[in-house]
Design goal:
The structure holds 2 protein chains of 2 kinds. Chain A is mainly alpha-helical. Chain A is built from 22 helices and 2 strands. The radius of gyration of chain A is 21 Å and the shape is globular. In chain B, a hairpin with a 4-residue loop joins strand 1 and strand 2.
Amino acid sequence: MHALLSCLIWLPIAAGVLILLLGDRNIVLGRWLALAASLATLALAVPLWAHFDTNTANLQFSQMLPWIPHFRAFYALGVDGISMPLIVLTAFMTVPVVIAGWTVIETRPAQYYAAFLIMEGLMIGVFAATDALLFYFFWEAMLIPMFLIIGIWGGPRRVYATIKFFLYTFLGSVFMLAALIYMYVKAGDYSIASFQALPLSLIEQRWIFAAFLLAFAVKVPMWPVHTWLPDAHVEAPTGGSVILAAIMLKMGGYGFLRFSLPVTPDASRELDLLVITLSLIAVIYIGYVALVQQDMKKLIAYSSISHMGFVTLGAFVMYEIMRNTGSLQGAGMGVDGAMVQMVSHGLISGALFLCVGVLYDRLHSRQIADYGGVVNTMPVFGAFMVLFALANTGLPGTSGFVGEFLVIIASFRASFWYSALAAVTLMLGAAYTLWLVKRVVFGPVTSPRVAALEDLNGREFIVLGALAAAVLLIGIWPAPLLKVMQPTVHHLVSQAVATKL
Amino acid sequence: MHQLLLQSSSFAPAVAEIWLMFAICVLLLIEVFAGARHRGLTATLTLVALAVGAALTARYAQVPQRTLLFDGTFLADELAVVLKLAGFLLVAVALLYSRAYLEQRNIQRGEYYILALTALLGIFVLISAGSLVTVYLGVELLALSVYALVAFDRDSGVSAESAMKYFVLGAIASGTLLYGMSLVYGITGTLDLTTIASQLQGPLNAGVVLGLAFIVVAVAFKLGAVPFHMWLPDVYEGAPTSVTLFIGTAPKIAYFALTLRLLAQGLAGTEAEWTRMLAALAVLTLVVGNVVALVQTNLKRMLAYSTIANVGFIILGFVAGTPDGYAAALYYTFAYVLVALGSFGVILLASAKGFEADQLDDYRGLQRRDPLLAAAMMVLMFSTAGVPPFIGFWAKLRIFQALWESNHLWLVLVAAAMSVVGAYYYLRIIKLMYFDEPAGELPHAPREAGVRFALGVNAAAVLALGIAPGPLLDLCARLIH
């Protein structure tokens, strides 16, 4: 019985409630408390990684307490190689969010920090839950702080954006709930493991797969249910965008890996082409959409959708690979790529949103046209921005390369055309990202306001520096990450290709 | 002596009703002789009477198993005890929230409290109804007291109008109920619900189905199910807010008991028929309630449509037609009244002299003016929308599950889709309170620490029962089985 995961979940929530009670009047204390809590959570995540046994696909750090006897639901936590890296990512990304809001947030700062810390706990809960009801509990509860974050601290159209965000995700989730109840009625309890072991007919699997697809596709988001994301991103405050891009989108990918593939393997095999097609549309079409954006945040938001297409592509090419080669190892590569892509995209998109936040705090504009020649006045910032932009295009040596490369190689084994189409993104991604950098960072100084810009302060430097180090570390030496995931991915693939019929 | 003792113990299960009757008589006398000099005395004594009543009920009304008393007219079981305790609690809290509101409007009079108590007595009679006569007695006692309460602010034309509407439509519903009962009586030859249940086995007589249809209409009217909901928005909007609070809470428990005793227990033999009727009503109710609520600008009216939508869920529990479904309906009723108590409480606490606080616009920027009220309202709204970690989520889940288990797949999908529609208007209130700036100066509500604390506890209960829903779920399951 380990309480480590419980601490990771409840420590930030407790700190959030405490900050809420301290109120805006004690915000100096509240701020330091928020920082301390997020650092403490990160510190708790270190033993999670360090003591993780990389030789097994079994759940580790498990904790199980009776919760709702009536539903036979348990407060059951545990991690494997898929959820553990995402929990560490969550703990890691909350720290820059807290620091980034340090002096910037002036309205109701106590509620701001409280919302992010509570959010952190709930997100870790989503990844750690091994009981489907507990999973859903955290999954839905998370909407509340995010709804408030966008609605209170967001931009001019924040109300429209946040209600759209809430209703879209709520709609997706209720059908997932219906599917979960259906399986509960059949299986007799809510544990995810028993759902995975539950024999289901093909027709049942198709319906359940559809319900899951709706819930997870909205979260990822996949084309054509992606339209909430650019709105939410643009209107959210910097911290909100970072958490949205870095963690919340990953829940969709996580859902596919945790539920869709192992619970409905036959429907997944049957409908893999659907997901692959949607992923490729996201990769290519959304890439073109990103190209024409005038707003920096919107551009990065579309780039996120395009990159998340790789996650779903990587997860679902395995069936085609199995058909062609019959090699479990090969099928696993796509999932490996999807996982690395999730972690890497979390870091890179988070960092890019923080970069935009740095500019926005100074000029209060997100329009590309308002900038130009920023590197002349902010050389250090320029260096970071270029680094993250290159990582976003998948430059070797950065984390962006590893994930995309693995997915493209895997999809080549499935079909030449998949990989050819997926590889278009290398071109498109480079086009929109580098063009953004060219227009914002390089060139002559375009306006007196840009000429008056000041370079990064110490707080911003630490935040971007830490993210840059992480991006480079995974890019140069991805082996530890891959090693942590390996047994779990192997197990997942064997579950996903086995038939339940 | 021995004989006498036996008899007195057979009265014990009815201690709640007996005490309440006694308290009403005493309070009436006190009001007549001392009411004018000591304003507020009756109010305080009413709360004391409710507390004593609850204590007596908890101590003496327990029965080891389901028992019929007084020639089968009075039914005593564990469910009745729990529902009565809930009734005491709900009325006490409702009166507590209302006190300042009534004082500001100069209608803080003893009769108000006495009418509330007679309504509660009607609720209890209904809860323990063992025969058709007791059912009707309870329904009428409750309804007549409530008509008077709605019209209590006699200088208000709107209140008088809604009381009139309520009375006329309510009288039709009572007539329908009586007619349906008379048909059932004519065919079975008994008024006793248990005997009716045992008579109505096997193939059905067309007369029974006809009688059943009339009864279902009356029940639907009382619950506020579409298309018999017309009175509900007008009454909710027109009545003084304190009365709306009253109508929205304790009577819902009574109408749950009405549906359970009459349809699920008395007319159990016709289950196939009435579940089909209720299924149609439930779908209509869910759709109309949620869709019409979207366009309201008056908060009381919006909450009225929200009530209709929630009633749709309660009916869905009965549609399942299984004890599990009834337990789900009971749990949903508890979850709903807890939230209704709080949300009308917020309106009462936000109002001031000459300011009803019933327009949605009055809640703009409430977070700045009164963070506690705003936070409480947010919790309550997220709960009714069915978002965890609040109790409303488990209530919806419980209903969904009961429907799945009784193979009503399509109803689950309708209800799920409608709860997404419903989420929109609950979010709108949160948006007004949290995202918008206050629109101009509004009258400041007087702040009473005690009442505000009670409201805080109310909202905290919604959260606490959402994080640990186990005990209440188990209780509901046990009460029905």
